[in-house]
């Protein structure tokens, strides 16, 4: 028995919860994975999984064994990457998932610089608003606002996602500007449906806190569509500043209720524990962190004007 291959197979099955997906990710057949797990169970003389026709979950022994095995696999991969790093720059395919709100208008120029610095890395970028499990779907890293879906995933914050309610000057002239959150209920509202807070809206100003449930005449999973919708002058839209900043600075949109603080979210890199020392993943994340600094560039002018905090 090749113990390292068996341990790697065990870690992949534990993370994906599926023998077939583990086999696909490792580039072998399902029967090979099954055989390696059986050999490992015979070697330690204990079952590692509880199996049924639909589910695979770790046994009590498997849970304890997984923590040590995941570290061992990560350490081995890190050592291999380190040896390669001594001789060359990072190489290989990097498959990432990215939210459209950041991918459009922001990630392109960063990606251009990254690929210039690391020409031997092949980057495959999937852009969508779905919350994904990078292990299950085969991503090296996912960039998202939601917390990790499993304990086997690691999260590293890149920047804060702030939000503002916005309207066009034409809408303000025709319908007025709300001065209290409750007044939003009297206006046409368009909302992004993908915020982690869902339909719960909390506004904070000094000692005042207002909680609202906003119905929203229009809902979309595209913040860019909502920005364009707001510019037509037909309603009020809540937008992340990474999408609205340029329009707010130019006057195409104006802030609404900026004296009230909305909850913010972390935009984070989420990746499998077994990838935490992978050179190509670490290189991309470090590159992005270095480019953002203390505050993302789109928030700096809004912070200076006091529209966000």
Automatic annotation (TrEMBL):
The keyword DNA-binding applies. GO terms for molecular function: DNA binding; DNA-binding transcription factor activity. It comes from the Bacteria. Residues 1-59 form the HTH lysR-type domain. InterPro entries: LysR-type_TF_proteobact-type, LysR_HTH_N, LysR_subst-bd, WH-like_DNA-bd_sf, WH_DNA-bd_sf. Keywords: DNA-binding, Transcription, Transcription regulation. Transmembrane segments: none annotated. The keyword Metal-binding does not apply. Belongs to the LysR transcriptional regulatory family. This is LysR family transcriptional regulator. It comes from Pseudomonas putida (Arthrobacter siderocapsulatus).
């Amino acid at each position: 028995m090749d113990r390292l291959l068996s341990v790697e197979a065990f870690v992949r099955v534990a993370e994906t919860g599926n023998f077939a997906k583990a086999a696909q990710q490792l580039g072998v057949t399902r029967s090979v994975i099954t055989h390696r797990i059986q050999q490992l169970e015979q070697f330690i003389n204990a079952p590692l999984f509880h199996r049924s026709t639909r589910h695979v979950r770790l046994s009590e022994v498997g849970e304890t064994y997984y923590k040590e095995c995941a570290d061992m696999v990560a350490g081995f991969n890190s050592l291999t990457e380190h040896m390669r790093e001594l001789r060359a720059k990072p190489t290989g395919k990097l498959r990432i998932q990215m939210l459209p709100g950041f991918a459009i208008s922001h990630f392109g120029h960063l990606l251009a610089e990254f690929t210039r610095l690391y020409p031997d890395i092949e980057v495959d970028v999937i852009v969508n608003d779905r919350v994904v499990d990078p292990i299950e779907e085969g991503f090296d890293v996912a960039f998202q606002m939601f917390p990790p879906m499993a304990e086997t995933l690691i999260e590293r914050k890149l920047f804060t996602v702030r939000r503002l309610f916005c309207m066009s000057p034409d809408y303000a002239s025709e319908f007025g500007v709300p001065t209290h959150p409750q007044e939003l209920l009297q206006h046409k509202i368009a909302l992004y449906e993908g915020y982690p807070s869902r339909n719960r809206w909390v506004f904070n100003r000094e000692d005042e806190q207002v909680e609202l449930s906003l119905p929203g005449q229009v809902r979309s999973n595209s913040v860019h569509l909502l920005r364009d919708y707001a510019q037509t002058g037909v309603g009020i839209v809540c937008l992340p500043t990474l999408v609205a900043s340029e329009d707010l600075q130019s006057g195409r949109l104006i802030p609404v209720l900026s004296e009230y603080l909305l909850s913010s979210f972390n935009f984070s890199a989420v990746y499998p524990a077994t990838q935490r020392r992978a050179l190509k993943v670490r290189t991309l994340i470090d590159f992005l962190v270095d480019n953002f600094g203390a505050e993302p560039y789109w928030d700096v002018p809004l912070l200076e004007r006091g529209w966000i905090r």
